[in-house]
Amino acid sequence: MDEPDLAVRKKGAVLTMDALFALALLLIAMLFMLMLLNRQVAKPVGFESASEIMDVLRTLKMEGLHDNPRYPYASQILKKGITDIRNETVVESITDLFLSGYEGEAENLTKELLDAAVPTDYGAELLVEKPGTNCEGVPSAFSCIYSTQRANRRNFVSVDRHFVYYDNVTREVRLVLYK
Amino acid sequence: MAKGQIWSYDLLIAVVVFIFLVALIAFFWLSISSAAGQPEGEELAIETSNFADVLMSPGNPSDWEDRIDTHDENTWATISLLGIMESFDSPEISHDKALALLEMNETDYGALKAKFRTNYNFYVEMKEFYDCASESMQNSPFNCSARGITPGSDEWNSMEHFVSFDGKNFTLGINPDAGNARSASVSNRFAIYNNSIVRVKVVLWTNQTWQ
Which is nearest to B137 in space by CA: B128, B87, A30, A153? Predict the structure, then answer.
């Protein structure tokens, strides 16, 4: 008579322990899920600069710089009529000049527009998709149009891209800001 | 010794309870950290970025400058956001909006601060870039001398100059140097005004200590 009673008690003990264990695991899993959901995502700050500068370069027209006393070099280039860039945006003109072989003019035009505008604790580079050397002097698929090296280190801050169509090829123009 | 003594229900329960308690403590720890807020420096940086986002937008409503009297803050209630851009699609600054903001700043800085919904003090300046000594600048109608910049002075030699709206330099708020700022956060934004690149510098600052 005792043996069946003992068997029943053993069965009851196993069932209870398993249930408790399962419940505990469920609670732990729920807690971890709540912990993960409760984390706040920090908003990245300071990354808008390159996109805004590129926005400005692709909105500003060369025509608008003509006879603008702030940009004497731009006015000079337009008067020389080196290439037909009058109706283009600034970024198109810079790229056009560079890819047409007027690399010095492209660099100087970019320098006139960006040198003073980019804060002094930032470095800036403008590159175009054309095999050559990048702004660090390394052979690359991108050639360096303009570079201002102000930071001792190159900690990447932000980048933006624009695409231009030159010589039946779509090419990427890249602006990089670093600290 | 009976088999399976190392593995027992007692041990199992103890492990489960231990893990449960660790998880509970970790959960409450993180909850309290979140409730206490982010580090103050990060909060200031985020708020500076948010302030700059609002400023570099067209505002709401987008024709807000036509709906208020900039000299009477009682008329400012209908505006929810103050921005100086022409539109969301364009990086061009609106002359009328910038001028309106300048006038509102002269009327009541405190009310303007409340309008931007910030507890920090703010300072905004807009600068453009040219060489006062260049021939083109000297021959232009808005040459530096005519604007009161003395030849040979620091401002004359600098490439950075305040953008002027109807004769007023675009600066809003209180300069952090003048306010003895203890902490400040800066956001530089870029736009176009008068076919020129301009840089809008937004500074949020406080002279409170963080404890």
Answer: B128
Residues 98-157 of B with CB under 8 A from A: 128-130, 134-137, 139-140, 142-143
What φ, ψ does residue B94 adopt, rounded to 5°?
-85, 125
Which tens digit of pLDDT belongs to each residue from A97-111?
A: 999 999 999 999 999
The ipTM assigned to this model is 0.77
* Residues of chain A contacting B164 with CB distance shorter than 8 Å: none
Q: Is A56–B192 a contact, with Cβ atoms under 8 angstroms apart?
A: yes
Please, are residues A107 and A145 in contact by the beta-carbon 8 Å criterion?
yes
- Global pTM reads 0.78
Tokens describing residue A90: 């600034």
Per CB-CB distance under 8 Å, the chain B contacts of A20 are 13, 16
Residues of chain A in contact with residue B38, where contact means CB-CB under 8 angstroms, are 40, 42
Tell me how far apart the 2 most distant CA atoms of chain A are, in Å: 115
Report in angstroms the alpha-carbon separations of B59 from A95, B51, B64, B94.
Answer: 34, 12, 7, 11
